Amino acid sequence: MNKGAVLVLGARSDIGMAVAYRFAQAGYDIQLAARNVTSLDDDRADIEIRNSIKATLHEFNALNIQAHEAFVTTLPELPIIAVCTTGYMGEQKESERDMTSASLVMRSNYEGPSSVLGILANHFEKRGSGTLVGVSSVAGERGRASNYVYGSAKAGFTAFLSGLRNRLSQHNVNVITVLPGFVNTRMTAGMQLPIALTAQPSDVAASIVAASAQGKNIIYLKPIWRLIMLVIKSIPEKLFKRMTL
To answer: What is the pLDDT, as a whole number, of residue 180?
Structure first.
């Protein structure tokens, strides 16, 4: 039985590819969307052969927002689930020195993802069904000196997803916000990540598939992150300004 298609935006990322494989294992057709997407043809073929489903490639640039409507309308079919894993961490110090670099981080994590999900939301609302998934970050829950440019963009994306969820709740469309915390990916390569607080891309993918089936709204990959961020958000500003986080 064909369950419909899952669109993976940012399929080149470690999380995106893990999401594609996990949904394929669950019996969904897969639409892989990324820049220079033809380079993912080996992955597309492997997903198809391993899972006996259909996988297709779609050129997508999160920053080219003028092309997002055409991108959605030219998909072979409107997906039943769309997962946005696009993002770019950048370097905080570089973003502080160069606003062009800061803008790239902000657009990659907020403007681009919000644009394409907003367009998909309109199509899902018209159809009256579907699930939208946005991978945000706990970094957006309070601005910290170490990554406030990235965190501010993720904060905006989290707020966008919250508003979208509120708007679409009456139209049988669910919106899921994913707050992974640390994830062991190429984007975090070289960082000293605490093992107990770090998830693998496969963990993120499994949680997204389960949350989609269960109609959840917000998921933390490791429950401890909910407590950690509650504590961080509760620190008085006078004290928080003197802390290094």
So the answer is: 86
